[in-house]
């Protein structure tokens, strides 16, 4: 008997995600691949296969709930004991085992898709999925491991203690090579009827029932009530659903508004949907549309949401007489007044950020070092994998707590949606997307992974009507090309500084028009940013401060950093001497301290110097956006009598 290691990679991840036009499709694309990996791990461990899965491991809690997130990554590692010793015989056995594992997994996955499944479903997905495998015999693994260790010692000036043998890195290197091979089938296979039906109307599939199940009591989904089918559907026929729908971008953006006034929110959407003039527009646009049409009709249509937000911007909603010459229906005075009354109930809590949502891509930093530290210790690899699974479980619950919706949390990768600012109830204290990021960082650190890896974030803050795939491209680009390529100075215990790579938040704020601005936050600056928000200064003061700052920034840049704290305070008091500044002395001091910290945090991206001035203004603009511009909610953090200032 000889020991062999099997590594399997699944895909096509990018091509499958690119099929997504809506949030529910982005979820089903991700969840489909996660379920595929789950079934691969189950197949490997079956008696007729006889493998032992090293990673990914499931969470330690048997009855775990992860709010719809796919928690299985795109790579698996397993150990086998095989009897054959003759090279051709062992190669044939390995190929037979792999094909059997693959067939079992695809068959199990197909049963979770939309019924009735067509006869060609298994054959189609066998061609569509890119499932590649590599096998390594134990002695071959040792040879590759020795080569990698020698290369590490040559290339790295200072090398932390290396294990005698590596297990995962040789397998990963071989998988990387396999993934460079072209796909067997064209990505146009994504236009197949099976994928069209699954992505266009995922709620019909058994997989939706599994992945979008409601959490067991007393746990509650952040979207409870808002995305329940009975509160969303107008036409259900005889169909009943025991699970929720996946939230749309508008649901995520306005979740805090819904949580403060749930009845008025839902009733206003329903009344707008039933309005005869809006119904006429829906019918006209639907007839002209060439996009995929869901078989399930809900309140969340572009026509309804456009009118919903127009009303919240204090737009009019007049009664309209019928026009027989154009077949235009009437809107009664009673109907118009009812809708305006419902609108007025929401106005005290409505903010500009209720039109924007966050799409967040997350990736682990220095995970190569963490994996390297495991060596070839199979028990350590299993423990490491289970820690990742436990983090996925706690991260999904935390994202839900902060009003977000996880899409994927597998390995060291995450993808989720979240509101910009969230109120859990009408009296709840607001939390921001950055509070959520700080909470996720704390959870990750608490797992005590070897080699102390960190997390970097790519964040797009996007208008709900802006194309989803553009928002996803922005968040991924900010993660991979900016956060993961950034370098910052970090003070050591002896007072010197050393470069700190990654462990960064890179964001892009995208308006409905497509205009945007970019910025960065290190983790220390993140704490300072949240401190400013929690201080409770007004948006009006911050607007005035930013305007004044542009006039005197050259003086501050030249003189400010060289002064001690007492003289710097005097300089700021002299330069910012208007009445609005004097009435916000604490806020003025805090903002100036934050700006000096930003200016002193010299950074680079891809070895090119970053622009600290632009970053300063980006962070001020973002803070202004987070602050409320109305005074309807007494539980906002000390914001009072705030006027809207552009």
Give the structure's gist in a few sentences:
This protein has 646 residues and is an alpha+beta fold. It is 48% helix and 15% strand. Mean pLDDT is 85; it is low at 184-190 and 631-646.
Structure explained in plain terms:
Helix content is 48%, strand content 15%. It is α+β, with helices and mostly antiparallel strands and 646 residues long. The strands form five sheets. Strands 8-9-7-12-15-16 form a six-stranded mixed β-sheet. A four-stranded antiparallel β-sheet has the order 2-3-1-4, with helices on both faces. Helix 2 (23-45) crosses helix 3 and helix 3 (87-110) packs across helix 4. It is flat.
Which key phrases capture this entry?
single chain, 646 residues, alpha+beta, 6-stranded mixed sheet, 4-stranded antiparallel sheet, flat
The biggest beta sheet, please?
Answer: 6 strands, mixed
Compute the number of helices.
25
Mean pLDDT rating: 85
Shape: flat
User: Span between N and C termini?
Assistant: 74 Å
Share of residues in helices: 40-55%
Give the structural class: alpha+beta
Number of strands: 18
Topology at a glance:
Blueprint: E1 2-9, H1 13-17, H2 23-45, E2 52-55, E3 75-82, H3 87-110, H4 121-128, E4 132-137, H5 138-155, H6 168-179, H7 193-200, H8 206-211, H9 229-232, E5 233-235, H10 249-253, H11 255-260, H12 262-274, H13 276-288, E6 297-298, H14 302-312, H15 333-346, E7 356-365, H16 367-374, H17 378-401, E8 405-410, E9 413-419, E10 421-422, E11 431-432, H18 433-446, E12 454-463, H19 468-481, E13 486-491, E14 497-501, E15 504-510, E16 516-522, H20 523-535, H21 539-559, H22 565-575, H23 579-582, H24 585-600, E17 604-605, E18 608-609, H25 612-626
Parallel strand pairs: 12-15
Antiparallel strand pairs: 1-3, 1-4, 2-3, 5-6, 7-9, 7-12, 8-9, 10-11, 13-14, 13-17, 15-16, 17-18
Helix pairs in contact: 2-3, 3-4, 12-14, 12-15, 17-18, 20-24, 21-25, 24-25
